[in-house]
Amino acid sequence: MNAPLSGFRARPARAVVDVRIALLVVGIVLSVLALGMVPSLVADLAVGHEDWQVFAASAAVTLFVGVALVLENRHAVPRHLGARDAFLVTASVWLATSLFAALPFRLSALGLSWADAVFEAVSGLTTTGSTVLSGLDRMPPGILLWRAVLQWIGGIGIIVMGVAVLPMLNVGGMQLVRTESSDLSEKALPRAGQVAAAIGGVYLTLTLACALAYGLAGMGTFDAAVHAMTTVATGGYSTRDASIGAFASPAVEWTAILFMILGSLPFVLYVLALRGRADRLWRDVQVRWFLGIVAAAWAALFLWVWGRDLLPAAEALRHSLFTVVSLLSTTGYATTDYGTWGPFAVVVLFFLTSVGGCTGSTAGGIKAFRFAVLYAVARVQMQRLLQPSGIFPALYGERPVSDATATAVLAFVFFFALSFSVVAVLLGLLGLDYLTAMSAAITALANVGPGLGPEIGPAGNFAGLPDAAKWILAFAMLLGRLELFTILVLFVPAFWRS
After folding, report:
1. Contact predicate 365/444, CB 8 Å
2. Which residues pair with 400 in a beta bridge?
3. In whole numbers, what is the pLDDT of the chain averaged over residues?
4. Res 176: pLDDT
């Protein structure tokens, strides 16, 4: 009686992902992106540079497409946004934004190819900071400002994604850091909109404070504004080919160090601090891990640089700290060519590239909280080896780490290592040498910026790489920025069917 009737076939599984939701959100974001092109239009128009027409045309096209998508899909607003919808929306927004953000680069007087234009746009939005451009000192203000605006927009987008979206989707163990967000929404601010507004207010305030500090340190108004946006966003785009080192100012460098660290810490903790919970900032496990790694790496690098008489003591202290903070925060600024510091320094800096900052910050990388979880799990495993009958819970601060969270963190680290290996091998197949391929792969996945070696190191750029390598690295930047799984899950056939 329950046997299937002959002559009838089972229907294929119904798709459960509504792409109209993704298209609606993409339309809204593209409309905002179009408005973000206006400051660059005004900047070029003010100096009489012809690229103002490029920004006008790019803004018009982007706004037209954005508004069209909103109008076409305005009835697709769901009552409940499912996990699959959230995955698709997140990936679609970052991909579409990257493509339209490339328009000014492609159409400008720079004459960039599509590979170069998309690479520069993706590097900006993901706050990676790798570049194919040279001659920044003589470049029109519109392009320089557009690069900074992209990183600033990408920075706030990353914070929102890390605080709200990824913990909800349980990506890479990020459900463990949901407590900070829930504390904020339940105890300090009652609504999600107010949480977003509070974080945005802190982000804007830090940017203005950074610009003021740069100005007091001797930067011009335009340079201070651009560098403030890319410092707080831990992006690293500069107005000079020599990056921060071009200003040859200890005051500027110390300012950058301070705000790179502030940009690497969880922004929800700043909001809690402003509401009388300043103790949470220091008590947070990943903050203490991040600052501890900074201190340890700074000490090791300083002793190496100073002990080999590469720099005087005062300069060794400053440059080693700047370099450590720049790479750990995934900003990618440079004050000197640290690739010439010798093999020990290169190895240390290579591994620092993958560490990253804190969740809920603008920094990239594996993230400090995952290293804290890995340490807790490894410590428990060692205790069980010594006392097999003992009960030793893995703790993240004072909270137990669930098996699901530990598994998610281990899976993330595995896929990070696997992705790094695949990207490095592909770059090697394209003819890149060992150091260039390895450092380009890690700097793209961790969203740091400069690599190692004479070609893509702090004294070079990515312009000389084959176009195929630039497309691979652009994808790797998006993959790392979206915490791997947000992109990789789209390639699983089961994602598209019920």
Report:
1. no
2. 395
3. 88
4. 64
Output DSSP code: residue 162.
Answer: I
The secondary structure of residue 111, as a DSSP letter, is: -
Q: How far apart are CA 286 and CA 372, in angstroms?
A: 7
Beta bridge partners of residue 395, listed in sequence order: 400
66, 33 contact by CB (below 8 A): yes
Is residue 83 classed as helix, strand or coil in its secondary structure?
A: helix
* Number of residues written out for the chain: 498
Other Cβ atoms less than 10 A from the Cβ of 332: the count is 30
DSSP string, 416-466: HHHHHHHHHHHHHHTT--HHHHHHHHHHHHTT----SSTTTSTT--STTS-
Residue 202 has pLDDT above 80, yes or no: yes
The structure tokens listed for 37 are: 């092109």
Global pTM reads 0.90
CA distances from residue 468 to 85, 247, 296, 423, 472 in whole angstroms, order as listed: 31, 35, 38, 12, 6
pLDDT, tens digit, 9 for 90 and up, residues 115-147 = 999 999 999 999 999 999 999 999 999 999 999
Residues 149 and 160: their CA atoms lie apart, in Å, by 17
Of 188, 183, 160, 172, whose CA–CA distance to 399 is shortest? Answer: 183
